[in-house]
Design goal:
Elements lengths: L20 E4 L7 E5 L3 E2 L10 H11 L3 E3 L17 H6 L4 E10 L2 E10 L4 E11 L3 H17 L8 E8 L7 E8 L6 E6 L3 E6 L5 E6 L6 E6 L5 E5 L5 E6 L5 E6 L6 E6 L5 E3 L7 E6 L5 E6 L6 E6 L6 E2 L7 E6 L5 E8 L2 E8 L5 E3 L7 E5 L5 E8 L2 E8 L5 E5 L4 E7 L5
Parallel strand pairs: 2-4, 2-5, 3-5
Antiparallel strand pairs: 1-30, 5-6, 6-7, 8-9, 8-31, 9-10, 11-12, 12-13, 13-14, 15-16, 16-17, 17-18, 19-20, 20-21, 21-22, 23-24, 24-25, 25-26, 27-28, 28-29, 29-30
Helix pairs in contact: 1-3
Length: 428
């Protein structure tokens, strides 16, 4: 049965505000062996409620580029580099070793860590950091980012956030729908908006301060922009008919959106500074789900102008669109990679809706996932992973896959459903 792509905009599943957990379900062949020793605690102050080393190890493991050593297999647990006997770790076939120590100091913590090259027997990184209790998890993610960048040679994306839609309740009366934000590993969930009415299409601004989204308050879909830190929100579009699928321009000054105020759903670009509205497409078909290219010059969008949903690309100033996807009868919900060389999208494959990756240079597509209903792909800021929504055990969950399809993850919750993830930019 054909599944209209417009329905994807209206499907809302949900999730309670429990923390998400990562489960690696794919292989780690070719991953770099690294041992992250649980961080020690020095001094007489109160130790943290969690071990920073364990968070660092979890981050490195879930990215798929590293193979972490189980704690039970460690022959020693040094906290500083001077305590390390490198031959022990060479015997365990480890390429890298991370050691660290946390020292409580009044209302804050002093965190020291070292990254060591096991084969060369030398230090690659060594930092002292100060953190309050609230930001200790963020500090651990920063450490993982520094380790990732030092070894891989590109920025990490661990100390970032993810926005998603959650809901509880099975009727309109008892439904609780929320726009939530969490750390990239699912911890520290924060409710940004809560409503009994549908919420959808969260989209981060490039500065990581604001989220655009659609709310059906008063039974009318409207596009809002909300400051994550102050809570201030502004209604951007509330025209007659459809107001949906907001997408930020790379400079944060414009929003692409789908409006039907002039008839059929088309792509428009709204100027957030001046309030001007520019119609980009004008066709009797349905044009929706715009995504900006990283340079801000082009928009990719979904259209059924050829009879079935496919991805098209058009100049951000308007013009004649060109078709991008030719493999498969259904391709929708495209998202540009950070380097602009590929598109992640939803494609119909082997009877299911799965996440695919299209090479814009030659048009070839690689199917990355194997779910029945995989939707809403969003790239990590460094382009190494794609987060998406899927179904598992009859409920909506979040998952992630590496861009080569080799490493797959599940981000599960205790109960409920969760949908429409959007990975925040990596803002220093």
């Amino acid at each position: 049965m054909k599944r209209p792509f417009t329905i994807l905009l209206l499907m809302l599943l949900a999730a309670p505000a429990w923390s998400l957990t990562i489960q690696i379900t794919g292989g780690t062949e070719g991953a770099l062996p690294i041992a992250v020793v649980p961080f020690g605690t020095a001094g007489s102050g109160e130790a943290p409620m969690f071990n920073l080393g364990e968070i660092v190890a979890s981050d490195l493991k879930r990215c798929g580029r590293f193979r972490t050593l189980d704690e039970k297999d460690m022959v020693a647990k040094p906290n500083v580099g001077t305590q390390v006997d490198f031959k022990d770790w060479r015997a365990l076939k480890q390429d890298y070793l991370v050691v660290g120590q946390v020292t409580p100091s009044g209302d804050s913590y002093q965190v020291r860590f070292e990254l060591l090259d096991v084969n060369k027997g030398q230090q690659l990184l060594g930092y002292n950091m100060t953190s309050n209790a609230r930001d200790l998890r963020s500090t651990a993610h920063q450490i993982a980012d520094m380790i990732y960048e030092k070894i891989i040679g590109e920025p990490g994306s661990f100390n970032t956030r993810v926005a998603y839609i959650t809901a509880k309740g099975e009727t309109t009366v008892n439904s609780q729908i929320a726009l939530q934000v969490s750390d990239s590993d699912g911890f520290n969930p924060q409710t940004i908006v809560s409503s009994h009415d549908p919420l959808m299409s969260p989209a981060w601004s490039p500065d990581g301060r604001r989220i655009a989204y659609v709310s059906f308050e008063l039974d009318q879909p409207s596009i809002y922009v909300q400051d994550v830190f102050t809570g201030k929100r502004t209604k951007v579009a509330s025209y007659r008919g459809i107001n949906s699928a907001p997408a930020w321009s790379p400079d944060g000054k414009k929003l692409a959106m789908t409006l039907s105020k002039d008839g059929n759903p088309d792509i428009y670009v709204y100027d957030l500074d001046g309030g001007g509205l520019n119609r980009i497409t004008n066709h009797f078909s349905i044009d929706t789900e715009a995504s900006w290219s990283p340079d801000g010059h082009k928009l990719a969008f979904t259209s059924d102008r050829g009879g079935k949903p496919q991805i098209y690309e058009v100049s951000a100033g308007g013009g004649e669109p060109r078709r991008v996807t030719f493999e498969g009868s259904y391709n929708a919900r495209a998202s540009y990679s950070p380097n602009g060389k590929s598109l992640a999208l939803v494609t119909q494959s082997s009877g299911g809706y799965r996440i695919g990756l299209v090479d814009l240079a030659n048009g070839s597509m690689q199917v990355l996932t194997d779910g029945r209903v995989d939707e809403s792909p969003s790239f990590a800021p460094n382009g190494s992973m794609i987060i998406y929504a899927t179904k598992e055990g009859g409920k909506g969950v979040l998952a992630a896959v590496s861009v080569d399809g080799r490493v797959k993850q599940r981000l599960s919750v205790q109960a409920g459903d969760v949908r429409e993830p959007d990975w925040a930019p990596n803002v220093k």
